[in-house]
Amino acid sequence: MDFFTIKKDLRNKKKIKLDLLVYLIREGGALQEPILGSKYLKKAKDEDFTGEFGESFFTYCFREYQNIEFESILVLGLGSKENIITNSFRKLGAMVFSFSNSKRYEKIGIITQGNFIWEENFYEGFLLSTYRFDKYLAARMKIWIKEIYLFTEKDCFFDVSKALCDAIMCARDLINESPSILNPKSFAMQIKNKSEEIGLKVKLLDRDQIERNGLNLILAVNRGSEYMPYVIRLEYGEAYAGRKKIVLIGKGVTFDTGGLSIKPLDNMVDMKTDMAGAAIVFSVMSVLARVRPNIHVIGYFACVENAIGPKSYRPGDVVYARDGSTIEIVNPDAEGRLILADLIDYAQEKDSPDILIDIATLTGSCIVALGDKIGGVFSNNADLLKFFIKSGNDVGECFAELPLTDTLKDQINSSIADIKNSGGYFGGAITASLFLMHFVKNVSWIHLDIAGPIKSDKDEYYIKQGATGFSIMTLVNFLVDKIFMIGDKVYERRKKI
Hints:
Distance between the termini: 27 Å
Radius of gyration: 25 Å
CATH topology of the largest domain: Aminopeptidase
Strand order of the largest sheet: 8-9-11-10-14-18-15-16
Number of helices: 14
Strand content: 15-25%
Number of domains: 2
Structural class: alpha/beta
Number of strands: 22
């Protein structure tokens, strides 16, 4: 598919023939007769078209408007002006793709009524809607659309949007992949190769190096697996080392059986997604490598499998963390926090970050608390937390703050070790975060629990059944803030209508 932007002052210089013209109009806006013609304008009014969000009016016609020839028209409502947000245009992009592809249209155009900032967000929704994880299906979705014309008065900048969509779809592919195919070794090698191709600095630690670096908790979690564990370090922006250094840490459990605290089938079936945090970290780093903002970011994750075997770690074990803390293992299914704990300590010693963010499908308790559309966020820095949540709101991803309260700290106290790895069912997302905070030193820290929104059980606009890639948009938006350099240009990402 090819996207083209056509400015209004060029429309009369080039005739464009379309199968479909999409006309976006806000609620209460006047339908334009020059576009629809009197016959179809009357028809739309007779059907009481008002412009509510997602409301549509479609008809076949053969018309020409400013040298745009089209055989059919789809009028789509934007909703009321005060309720139009960037995510509205992503959803509309998804609607247009679904409708156009079902009709097998090859050439479509989009025009809006009103002065909206819509182009990049529409593009993102449209592109993300083309995703399907269908590599194992005999019948795969065919994309009929070949050319998309956006009629606009603005200069459009799709490089960032394209990099973002590619990264989200890459993360979806990794998370959706069969766990027999995506095991700790194949995952690590795939990320290493992809990272080198796009110019990220890569360091890979094998089992011996993990052991020499004292990452004992990572080794403990992986003990039952037939595969060797790996730790990956990715770096972007070493040239900007004088700026604030940000470290991202992802949970990379390629399959989680629950270990000797084995999960029931209903809870285990989606556990190939337990490496989503690692996929998110790589995907965010891949966006940075392509758009090249002037920031310094380092990413870490461990590729492991929480499997069952004769060497599996056991309830009642006491394990030494990298920082010297002793941990009583009361639940081998609370393995993600162990991996993150060692990496948090390792990254703080090796990189001295200004900001540290970990991303994990960590607890079912977070889903119980917030549902499957909202990510949980914890932080020891109130200002940073507010900025992060706003970064999510700006791109249509919802995060809610959960408390880091000492009230529940006694739930992870141990009588035989410094701390235990689970505080039980009640307040599970909070006690997991308190466990992680034990290993956080003097650094601004954010913990993301994305167990709920990382997957969807149905198609919904540009979110497709399976892995969603949730948090990539927020993290990229958060990292680059509003203004950054791409080559020799300063680019301001347009987020507000």
